[in-house]
Amino acid sequence: MRKLKIEELGRISVEEYKRAEKLPVTLVLDNLRSLNNIGSIFRTADGFRVENIHLCGITACPPHREIHKTALGATESVNWEYFKDTLDSIEELKSRNYKILSLEQTLNSTPLNEFVPQANQKYALVLGNEVKGVDDSVIGKSDECLEILQLGTKHSFNVTISAGMAIYDIALKLNYLNLL
Prior knowledge:
With 180 residues, the chain is of the alpha/beta class. The chain has helices at residues 14-19, 35-47, 65-71, 74-77, 86-95, 136-141, 159-173; strands spanning 23-30, 50-56, 80-83, 98-103, 110-111, 122-127, 144-147. It is globular.
């Protein structure tokens, strides 16, 4: 067994990525403060061909040296838009028939492993601030809240880890990983 060389991975170009079929998910970053987290989420979004990222509120936008450090060029492949207020992003997505999913621990949240995404449905996955989580006003506009179950002593996972787990789970359940 050996590691594959970069040229053996068969990755597509940015131009091919732009034309490729996308996972029907838009990520909504609700006031993320860490530029490294933002960059990592771009890189994860690229890896799963997420269709779009909405950067909201205090969430920084590319180009930025600190975002680029972890995005490693994914800000060039993944489409993104900026919204001054997260609720403006949510309203636009709802008007385009997206189902709004907030990744947050709430009274009636659905465990991620029990969530069943529907084919032909577009989803907006809201990821919250590293300290405060998803804003209550955004939770109030969400169609559903998803929770990643955990067994340890901490109250939450890092937002980039949460994003990766949730996107991977949705991609698996929608059979999007068979595009390889």
